[in-house]
Amino acid sequence: MTVAGFSFIEYLGHPQQTGIVIYISGILFALGVYHLLLFFQHKDKVYLYYALYALLVFVYTFHRAEHFILADLAKPIIPSLHFLYDATKWLYSTTYLLFAITFVDFKLYYPNKYAWLMKFIYLSLGTLALATIISIINGDNRILDYGYNFAFLPVLFMLSLYILYLVVKSQSAVKYYLLIGAGTYLIVTSYSHYLTYSGHPFRVLFYAATAFEMFLFALGLGAKQKKLMQEKNRWQALIIKEQEENLKVKETLTQLLGKKVDVKDIEIEILKKEKEEEIKKKLALAYSKQILQLRVQAVQAQMNPHFLFNALNSIKNYIINNNQKEAILYLTKFAKLIRHVLEYSKRSAVSLREELDLMQLYVDVENIRYNKSIDFQMQIASDIDLNRVKLPPMILQAYLENAIWHGLALKKGARILRIKITKQMPFICIEIEDNGVGRKKALEITDRKNATLQKESLGLKLTEERLRIFTQAFKNKYKVEIIDLYDQENQPTGTRVVLHIPV
User: pTM for the full model?
Assistant: First the structure.
């Protein structure tokens, strides 16, 4: 087969004369400008890196074409482009590496390796800048030539193979676009370089591999953006649905509890008018106890919206930062926590095992706001049957919340929160200990936040009142101790709350 007097192989072997370079350069320029516009629209750096890579390869190729209007216009600077031939290749190769690790979310799957890859990229750019300055001052570009071909290029080739190996092991949804595109490019361009250095240049392979890779990456970017939008829409819809359902449940509970309180208030007023004073007092006491329990349940229901807002806000940040794995994990824990709180609010007592499981969920969800910096530990004596010991639901929550908000949140460094449970008949002894800043320091820091302090004080008073009601039928009464902890230098090292619950 011949084309204009050339065999087809000869035709492909002269891409500068046959217009192939013009065609490839036009594609590179169009893709570069288009993805630069996408970067300004989406503010996603992967589009910027792709656009820079495409435009740098365009700068490297366009002036080689014959009868190309841009090459004719650039004739005055073509000697400079030739002088910076290796610098351009060095720069677009580094940009290519930056695009590749961003494209497959390398930072998400290999954070440590991503850190040293970024250091390599900065070192590469710094070395390139220094070599370029020296070459321009000396008027000799051999340092760029040797640096690129005998130092940077071999390292980049081996590094690219290692990165492709890590990408194969990753869970990236678009990894096959990179593997096929980059793999084809590495193989074909390596063969093209071999032919060039062996005296049989066939540069059309380089241009074909470049075009194929650029098209595949463009398709991958489109697929990635589509998946991100689908995931974002799905999570937003799920969060909105969860919020609506939780608000409906809260409103329903509030209305029902309000009606029960009103009915009991009326019954108490009727009982006060009865003649038998002793009977009136007993009945009034019984009804007062029921009302107090109902009001405590109402307070429990009202605790949830503030905590719900903080937890959902933290999960939303994971979604915005495309940290889907963490978002799914904590959304599942959050939903389980809310379900148990609503279920337990209908019960007067739960087992110690149920209470500890619920507190584990509570601390896990609270820990989102502190970047999982709180080390939560449980120590349980082997002679305690967690299923047989009963106590009011969420009785430990107020003490844990107090330890986190006023002790650990204000502390720098390691944060430890520990629950220790032992049997000291006739009591079950529950110790809640934190290594926070201590009560005195917390009061100094939060002195201006009177509303917050009043809320926390009310929460602890209600918790003790619930313990009082719960233990009325027991021979032994509950006890609560709050102990300030100090080191040998009399510096505060945390707080310990000890609950003695009769069994």
Answer: 0.47
